[in-house]
Amino acid sequence: MTSPVRALWSAPPAQPPAPRRVWRDWVLVAALPLLIVIEAAARPDVPWRWAWAAVLVVLVPTLLWRRIRPFTMLAIAFAVGTAVGLATGGDPQLITTAYFLVLIYAVMRWGLGRAMLGGAALVLAGIVIPALFAPPALGDLIGELAVVVTTSTLGIAFRWRAGARERELEGVRLLEREQLARDLHDTVAHHVSAIAIQAQAGTAVAPHDPAAAAEVLRVIEGEASRTLDEMRSMVRVLRRADAAELAPAQGIADIPRLAQPAAPEPGSLVVDVRVDDEPAAAALPPAVGAAVFRIAQEAVTNARRHARDATRIDVHVRVEAEGVRLEVRDDGEPAASAAPGFGITGMTERAALLGGTCQAGPAPGGGWLVSAVLPRAGWSA
Q1: Sign of the dihedral defined by the CA atoms of residues 243, 247, 251, 257, in that order
Q2: Which of 338, 374, 341 minimizes the C-alpha distance to 355?
Q3: pLDDT given at position 53
């Protein structure tokens, strides 16, 4: 095989993975048999119309497995259709036969590379074999090929677009992990530096003041415990091997700065920031404070950019016994979106890395709400 064909043969299935079934599948499977019967009854001029109607109804359930077994379902449909066509001496002339195109689309959209090649060969055989026994008009053959090629092209195009978006989203997730790793790296480096300084001080005073040396050891023990806690948080969080940022990690204390845009303009949004129980908030682990700040920053930025006719953004941070809750709400009209954007993906990933959740969507009563929960169990485990 040539190199492009070999590469296609080894291609993995589509990403993201195909859903097993959705509600539209059941609607399609329920409606098609009725449409097939109605068309067969309304077209007495079609040869073998009831035989073809029975075959088409029997093959309708292949649509339910077209995503998880695309090539198998296409092979079943085309094998049965070709066999019946040879037996009856002609192709099906019922318009509802067009649902076979859904099976072709599914192979190109969801199948492995070898399934795509096999599906193309199967469809080509399904066109050529009947033509050998009953040559069709040239126009009909060209039209049939055009429809099949168009359907296949659509499947490949949607497959490529979904894969490209998935790669972009994965890049956003990796960037969030990198940023969190940077924040944690700065915190751990601070603790280790404190341990080193205390150890040097303990070495200097030990010969003259054993009590002071014992106090230094207790400080070192506390710093070491905090360092271990932060290092546990760094598990599976990746960091690129380039220069680390020298700016200190931002935390909950920096959230009020979100109310001050870099370039305020007349009529700009009013951002109201409220942090309940500020002493408890200041005592949060640096990684948690940094995560809360980053999520709030992204949510406020999204509201400034995308909330139509918004006049106010409310940022509310609550520190509770169970963890930290963050809510960012605006009073604008949210822009319609078919899929979560990169900003929402980044906020969700950052919360998940600390065992929490982040949700974004229309708020009750109007506006847009971003809600994040970081449970203590997530960052203390």
Answers
A1: negative
A2: 374
A3: 93
| b/e burial code for range 201-233 (CB count within 10 A of at least 16 → b) | bbeeeeeeeeeebeebeebbeebeebbebbeeb
The answer to whether 322 touches 376, Cβ cutoff 8 Å, is: yes
Angstrom distances, CA of residue 78 to CA of 61, 89, 311: 14, 16, 59
Task: Using DSSP bridges, classify how beta strands 323-330 and 270-275 pair: parallel, antiparallel or unpaired.
Answer: unpaired
Alpha carbon 379 to chain centroid, angstroms = 24
Q: State how beta strands 357-362 and 312-319 pair.
A: unpaired
d(Cα 213, Cα 91) in Å, to the nearest integer? 95
The H-or-E segment that residue 99 falls in is none
pLDDT higher than 60, residue 263: no
pLDDT at 334 over 70: no
Measured CA to CA, the distance from residue 38 to residue 44 in angstroms comes to 11
Backbone angles phi, psi at 312, to 5 degrees: -150, 145
Scored b (16 or more CB within 10 A) or e, 245-272 reads eeeebbbbebbeebeeeeeeeeeebebe
Helical (H) or strand (E) element with 86: helix 70-88
Q: Flag the least confident range among 70-74, 187-191, 227-231.
A: 227-231
Mean pLDDT score across all residues of the chain: 80
CA distances from 326 to 74, 233, 272, 356, 369 (A): 49, 20, 13, 11, 10
pLDDT at 41: 92
Helices 70-88 + 49-59 axis angle, to 10: 170
- Burial zone of 15 (CB within 10 Å; 0-12 exposed, 13-18 middle, 19+ buried): middle
* Residue in this structure with the two tokens 């009529």, named with its chain if needed: 267
For residue 16, cis peptide bond before it (omega within 30 degrees of 0): yes
Three-state secondary structure call for residue 181: helix
What is the widest separation between alpha-carbon atoms in the chain?
112
